[in-house]
Protein: Membrane protein
Amino acid sequence: MDRTTAGTDRTTAEANAEPPRVSHRTMTVFSAADEEKQRGVRRMKLTATGMLLFVAVVYVLAKWASHAGAGAWADYVAAAAEAGMVGALADWFAVTALFRHPLGLPIPHTAIIPTKKDQLGVTLGEFVGENFLSEDVVRQRLRAVGIGSRLGAWLAEPQNADRVTAELATALRGALTVLRDSDVQAVVGEAINRRAGAQEVAPGLGKLLEGVVADGGHRRAVDLICARAQHWLILNEEQIMDAIEGGAPGWTPRFVDRRIGERVYKELLRFVTEMRDSPAHPARGALDRFLTDFALDLQSDTDTRARVERLKGEVLGRGEVQDLIASAWTAVRSMIVAAAEDERSELRLRVRASLLSLGTRLTTEPSAQAKVDKWLEGAAVHVVTTYRGEITSLITETIAGWDAEHTTRKIEANIGRDLQFIRINGTVVGSLAGLLIYTVSRALGA
Structure:
């Protein structure tokens, strides 16, 4: 392949390559702050190397002075300088081995960060999972924070309660706006039909009717019916008379039909009036007995319960009833949206009052605080224990996606300056240790 083709292929590959992910930016791009840190690392490297050269020069001069007969002090200085060189070189090797192969030699267990990056990511993920995402740590931390009392103190402030109320109203309006009426209507209709179809209504109606009759709650309805019936009879006397006369045989004289009609009308009006005015009227007692027997039949009679179930199915199957069920959601949604938008609506006022009351309880009642803290601890522990693997894998996979070279440069720029102090300290401590060892050796030898 010639150079032109290779260049073309490389250009095409670069054009088709995916752009760097934002999540990798922090480890692949050097910022101005990173460049400044790297310059600080270089300065510290020069300082540490300068100290190594300094003790090397001191060692050479001390050895020369010792051979020249300068005295015993030259041997002490030479021993200290020699140990200082050893310490400086050993620490230089250790620090360098973290980031690269010393002198470019592939010595085992060197260039630890670039070669062990993925393994370090796995170890870091396991460390975080075991020491930060454990149930005991999460519970202790949340218990120390005291979220229940803090939340109560925050909610007890009126402006905070207003803010939460407004946010809840906005979220409610948004949710109701997103939902499609047809979908909700279908769900509501299906739920009502399924619930009504699965549950027998006759026993419940019978028990309800039995209670109403026992408490006399039906008597007002009977009073209303009797009053309306009397009023209707008075207003429609002629029509009733005509109906009675029209039902008489054709061979009877008309005046006889008229007298019979008047008699029937008067008796009917008297009956309704007496029933209206007399709570102890026999017809009322008969009605009470009928309703009581009907209530018992609804609860225990198989035929009556079956008829009610058939009637229920026929009613639910009517299109008017289904339309009513479907339109109920539209009315409810409009009512809720209007209440959520109105700052003075009963809904928002009640929510605000509830939040203030909750804040006061959480502030003053330790039992309420403990309940909230326990609930939050349980929720946090559930999340941590359930998704611990995903959380730690995020660390592992993120580190695995970093470029080894840039990761090494980034880490060295951030901690390399402190690591150079190890070299400096190694030089100083090595010199002092060498001086001490030489002094003890001479003392024992003497």
User: Anything to note?
Assistant: Confidence is low (pLDDT under 50) at residues 1-26. Residues 24-115+403-445 form one domain. The CA atoms of residues 213 and 288 lie 7 Å apart. The first helix runs from residue 3 to 16.
